[in-house]
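Researcher: Please translate sequence to structure tokens.
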Amino acid sequence: MTSFWSFWVSIISLGSIFGCLWLVYVTRKSQTTDTETEKTMGHTFDGIEEYDNPLPKWWLYLFIITCVFALGYYVLYPGLGNYKGLLTVEVDGETVPWTQVAQWEKEVHDAEVRYQPIFDAYADKTVDELVQDPEAMKVGQRLFANNCAVCHGSAGRGAIGFPNLTDDDWLYGGTADAIKATLVNGRQGAMPAKGLNPAMTNAQVDDMVHYLLAFSGRSDNAEAAERGAAMYQTACAACHGADAKGNLAIGAPNLTDNIWLYGGTPKRLTHTLLYGRAGMMPAQSDRLSEEKIHLLTAYVKSLSLN
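Model: Translation complete:
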């Protein structure tokens, strides 16, 4: 904040407080008595008269206390322009002026120091051992709730565009190593519009939809499904495989199991083919320590085992 705006904010803030105190002082001084009176202000409205009585003392004292509290707050905490306040907080061994961010950083640091031995102990166990440890899974559940539930849901059942982690269908593999690689590095998925055949017509898209529906017995047009099978080999097989069972190496989903990331209705399948899809799983390595990712891997693995 520039010096001008710092000065301007300070004047407005302090002026408001002292202005309120001055207003109360002037009002009290103009009162002719400190007790209740029958004297009125000289005007009426709808038969109601306003008496010229002083404010109740409890109200007056409470107002003054509020103003004094506000001044004390401005002395202790930052708020008056560039003034840093008298309070300090220690962050990473360095004493700095108190701010919300500094306080948060201190609490995070204190929590890491306090709980790191727990995560270190879990890091010495294998994923399979952690899955069988109820206490470890409780900690893992909290990590999941804080870092993953916003996309995958609190129970890990996913949503449209966000994989269900409780089944045994994995885009990039469900082994401990594959799950950990996903958490550490993130994933970037892309389904190009009309696959590898941008010249695909709308009629051919419809045929492709029937072909995909036929895997789950939902197509009512065998001829269209047969035409879609031929188009599939030229437009989709390179990623999803000739048998449409997917490719874990690139995250191409299995199209034969009736599990659909973006929905398996004819309308949603048509939309996917016409416009493509793009998904992104952010890397967690810049947010979570190696020990926490190890524990989170075990928890995610456990979701598909229950």
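Researcher: Any highlights?
Model: The chain has a mean pLDDT of 92.
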